[in-house]
Specification:
The chain is an alpha/beta fold. About 50% of the residues lie in helices and about 15% in strands.
Length: about 220
């Protein structure tokens, strides 16, 4: 039941912050600002040095079981999990979902074994179908910059049951188009953090996060 609840929370929140920092402390600081701005689904990539420390620290502070309006509510996951070993280590550190840049069947099987949502990266109809056959609930369309929102409806023609989350290339200007096209959620990476990293002012992440949440909610409004 917890796995399905996490999947539902990701779909309900709709925006995933994909965070790549230079250190665990850096990643935690970014995550805290994103959460304060309203993005409650946090993905710490395994490319962060000592990423497991950041995941563990955030998992201890925030909980998917907290009330949605609590300042302690957030769902912490791991990204850029290239293999099942990385996924298992992240789960043991407290990650409640796992994201990969590509479809690795062994990683999917590992996550299914422990009933943890897994979102592998896909690029083709063949990969999406294989992911569904492996029991994937949400496929990460990656890199999203190679596609347009119309890709969602094209995929959903033959595979209406596929839940797609574009990541990479999603920004405030096109987020609404992706959501209205049928994306179950979107992943936001560098556009969320670039300015803050350049200036050293991490409060900019909080402000940008609030803008993304507002854009998502606006896109979900009935026409």
């Amino acid at each position: 039941m917890k796995k399905m609840k996490i999947v539902q929370q990701i779909a309900a929140e709709g925006v995933v912050a994909v965070l790549r920092g230079s250190s665990p402390d850096d990643a935690v600081a970014m995550a805290e600002q994103a959460i304060a701005g309203g993005i409650k689904i946090i993905e710490i990539t395994m490319t962060v040095p000592f990423a497991l420390q950041a995941i563990e620290s955030l998992a201890k502070k925030y909980s998917s079981q907290a009330a949605p309006d609590s300042d302690r509510y957030a769902v912490i996951g791991a990204g850029t999990a290239l293999d099942p070993e990385s996924a298992r280590a992240a789960i043991l550190a407290g990650a409640e979902f796992v994201v990969g840049p590509s479809l690795n069947p062994d990683t999917v099987k590992l996550c299914n074994r422990y009933r943890v949502p897994v979102m592998p990266g896909v690029m083709t109809i063949k990969e999406i179908q294989e992911a569904l056959e492996l029991g994937v609930d949400i496929c990460k369309l990656f890199p999203g910059s190679l596609y347009s929102p119309s890709t969602i409806s094209a995929v959903k023609g033959p595979l209406p049951q596929a839940n797609l989350m574009p990541t990479g290339g999603v920004n405030l200007a096109n987020l609404g188009d992706w959501i209205r096209a049928g994306a179950v959620a979107v992943g936001i990476g560098s556009d969320l953090t670039n300015e803050a990293v350049k200036t050293g002012d991490y409060s900019l992440i909080r402000r940008k996060s609030a803008e993304y949440v507002a854009a998502y909610r606006n896109a979900k409004q009935p026409v």
